[in-house]
Amino acid sequence: MKNDIEKCLFCGRCEHSCPMQAITIDRKTRKWTIDREKCVACGVCAENCPAKCLAMKEEWEEGEDKALVLTLTGKTPVRPARPAAKPAEAVKPAAEPPKAEPAKAVPATEPAKDVPQSENPHHVKNDIEKCLFCGRCEHSCPMQAITIDRKTRKWTIDREKCVACGVCAENCPAKCLAMKEEWEEGEDKALVLTLTGKAPVRPARPRPPVKKDEPHA
């Protein structure tokens, strides 16, 4: 088993899928460890790797580390810097008020001002109209980047935590989550995005039939 550690997302799928528990991951220190004495080279970890950084090898490559317990350290991901708050402008002396103009409607897709934006084009998109708010994506996310509030029908993703591993999309029963490699025109790029779904319409319960008094014999 060989790991191209530069591509590793440290999502934990190899660790959880390994039947021999030969792999351990420490996300805080970005360390990936394999115990080759436990590993049976079944290839399950490589099949489940979303980044395709794991590969099964039949021969050692020249200079490859053959340690029985091998630990590799990945680089800390570079997060886009949050834009600094704009300094307050000096108050100018009041001038004659301009003529009032009719208010223009702001498109729903226009991002709010001063909201940190994500610069990573690899992201998760949610078709919130189809969302069941079942919580499968929240519980399966290895980075704990998704939170759901069923009472208010709110779905939130922290794109600073998300590593775009695709686990949430694979576990979504409604297939409302999809992995995207590019931003669509007008898409909200907020670093912390919250979407609100519609309250489900419950069918009215049929009323029991009213029993009429039967005439006495």
The CATH first-level class of the domain at 123-196 comes to: Alpha Beta
Average pLDDT score: 83
> Structural class of the secondary elements?
mainly beta
Count of runs of 4 or more consecutive helical residues: 4
Percent in strands: 15-25%
Show unreliable segments.
Answer: 106-110
Main sheet: strands, sense, barrel: 3 strands, antiparallel
The order of strands across the largest sheet is 2-3-5
Rg calc:
26 Å
In which range does the helix fraction lie?
Answer: under 10%
H and E string: EHEEHEEEHEEHEE
CATH architecture of the domain at 123-196: 2-Layer Sandwich
Instruction: From the 3D structure, determine the CATH topology of the domain at 123-196.
Output: Alpha-Beta Plaits
Calculate the terminal CA-CA distance, rounded to whole Å: 89 Å
Question: How many strands appear in the DSSP assignment?
Answer: 10
Q: What gross morphology would you assign?
A: flat
Explain what you see.
This protein is mostly beta strands. Among the domains are: 2-73, Alpha-Beta Plaits (2-Layer Sandwich); 123-196, Alpha-Beta Plaits, CATH 3.30.70. 9% of the residues lie in helices and 18% in strands. The protein is built from four helices and ten strands; from the N terminus they run E-H-E-E-H-E-E-E-H-E-E-H-E-E. The chain has helices spanning 13-17, 44-48, 136-140, 167-171, and strands at residues 2-3, 23-26, 31-35, 54-55, 69-73, 123-126, 146-149, 154-158, 177-180, 192-196. Strands 2-3-5 form a three-stranded antiparallel sheet. A three-stranded antiparallel sheet has the order 7-8-10. A two-stranded antiparallel ribbon has the order 1-4. A hairpin with a 4-residue loop joins strand 2 and strand 3 (31-35). The termini are far apart.
